[in-house]
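Hello forum,

I keep getting stuck at the same step: I have a sequence, I want structure tokens, and every attempt I make locally crashes halfway through. Rather than fight my setup again tonight, could one of you with a working pipeline run this one for me? It's a single chain of 246 residues.
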Amino acid sequence: MKVLVVIPARYDSSRFPGKALADLGGKPLVVRVIEKATDMKTADHIVVATDDQRILDAVNAHGFPCEMTRDHATGTDRIGEVASRHDADIILNLQGDEPLLDPAVADSLVEVMVDNPTVDLATCAHAFDHENQWQDPNTVKVLIDQNDEALYFSRAMVPGSFPEATGKKTAGFQHALRHVGIYAFRREALDRFLSLESTPLEKAEGLEQLRALENGMSIKVLKIDQAPIGVDTPADLELVRELWRD
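Reply #2:
Ran it on my machine without issues. Output:
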């Protein structure tokens, strides 16, 4: 099966404008991401997708492929445009702000898709370290079934904990997983997903993966040990720089 890896990158990040070109060890952040991705064993082609000439020039200057796209509302839409130009069975969406992601995790996600031919898409999640993470609305929670398929994604503290009904005081965070925003799509599933209208729960939570669930699509969840620090803010970048030097 042919695997296309697409790394969406835009300049106008709401919390950190220009972060794709922020310096990390002498190279732009997005270049560090694609460098890391080249260590994957399953990828047939890796490309950055952007709507900004500055990003395209920076990626090309370091010898990596980058494709211009139209202006899109989401990274998935941008990935869909690039995927339409390539022959691929599985399309992997890597975040352009996670230079510390282990390529082995990305390879494992592809393997999940290969081993489960009826699954539409796959993503990653890990156990919460502590309850404070679970309480944070900026942290996305995912609930899974007995087959490790997603039941629901939320920014809220799900599942709820009702000791008066169950007689137990188990905290809800012990039953949820922290979602990691990396996705593998089967080509047919990506095409279908992008053809669908936004759904009520997607709009309520601000989570586009709910569009898939609300339309009966299956999402396999790969459990991983821990997620790397992503770069959402300048403060995050400083933390990543420290780890990069180490």
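The domain at 3-245 is CATH 3.90.550.10 (Spore Coat Polysaccharide Biosynthesis Protein SpsA; Chain A). If your local run keeps crashing, start a new thread with the error log.
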